[in-house]
Amino acid sequence: MSLTNYTVADAVALLQLDRPETRNAINTAMLTEMLAHLAAARADDEVRALVLSSSDHMGLSAGADVREQLDGEGAVRRMELFAAVYDELTGFPKPTVAACHGACVGGGAEIAVACDLRIGGSNLRLRFPGAALGVPVGPARLVTLCGLSVAKYLLLTSKEVAVDDAHRWGLVHKVVPAPRTEEAALALATEIAAHPPESVARIKRMLHEWDDVEGRSRAEGEGQVEWQRSGPGLPYAG
After folding, report:
1. N or C: which end of the chain has fewer CB within 10 A?
2. CATH code at 104?
3. How far apart are CA 207 and CA 160, in angstroms?
4. Using an 8 Å Cβ cutoff, are 217 and 114 in contact?
5. How many of the other CB atoms lie within 10 Å of CB of 72?
6. What residues does 162 pair with on adjacent strands?
7. Does some domain include residue 23?
8. Closest CA to 49 of 93, 109, 114, 101
9. Residue 71 forms part of a structural domain
10. How many CA atoms lie within 13 A of 117 on its CB side?
11. Against a cut of 0.70, is the pTM above it?
12. How far apart are the first and last CA of the chain?
């Protein structure tokens, strides 16, 4: 059974997480599907922008599925896939927009900030619990978005943030009623997709080269995988 949905319309690809019974907790199968869809969107010349959302506006994702049945090797493999998804989204050559509604926690929050732009639903509950869980993740992409001071607050406290603060700190660019989050994200992506794709891709590439966010993302991902392999790692049901 598929855990994601992927469609293309009007030059915009829509990738939805579709596991609402678990608040879209992310497991190995979902990560594998996401990477396949991202590869398809990257290769499709008809796709000029990508929206990442979920089938239920009550939550983008509650993060990693710590109830997934894995052995030690499987847990490392899952972390490798998480790092690959973060890197692929961060370095995606076309504009990306995340629909951030409801629970947007841990891996879900990291996926959101790996996108270029974010629409915030009125019910957003954003949290980066890395410090509380001991996970070495967050700085690579977050500092770029909101600056060192806010990134420290979010990452070191692991506090939950509502949409007003997320908007004030630049983490989301627009706030809409929760049921309209995906609609607003698609509208923004469609607007960007109307621009010449070569120009958009060039500008995004320039921004990333000067900021080196992709290099930081790769380095952070390597650290996450090593932490899973030789450190305490994320919990899993073995």
Report:
1. N
2. 3.90.226.10
3. 29
4. yes
5. 12
6. 125
7. yes
8. 93
9. yes
10. 23
11. yes
12. 22
**pLDDT tens-digit series, residues 62-100:** 999 999 999 999 999 999 999 999 999 999 999 999 999
Domain holding 206, by residue range, is 4-178+197-230
> Which amino acid does the sequence have at 105?
V
For residue 235, is it within any domain?
no
Are the C-beta atoms of 117 and 96 separated by less than 8 Å? yes
State residue 130 phi and psi, 5-degree precision.
Answer: -55, -45
Distance in angstroms (rounded) separating the CA atoms of residues 181 and 14: 13
Contact between 115 and 89 (Cβ < 8 Å): yes
Count of residues making up the chain: 238
Partner residues linked to 170 by β-bridges: none
Tell me whether residue 222 is in a domain: yes
How far CA 202 is from CA of 54, 66, 150, in Å, comes to: 29, 39, 29
| Cα–Cα separations (whole angstroms), residue 45 to 40, 116, 201, 210, 231 | 10, 19, 12, 26, 42
List strands edge to edge, sheet with 96-100.
4-9, 12-17, 49-54, 96-100, 117-121, 174-176
Report pLDDT digits (tens) over 193-226: 999 999 999 999 999 999 999 999 999 999 999 9
- The domain total for the chain is 1
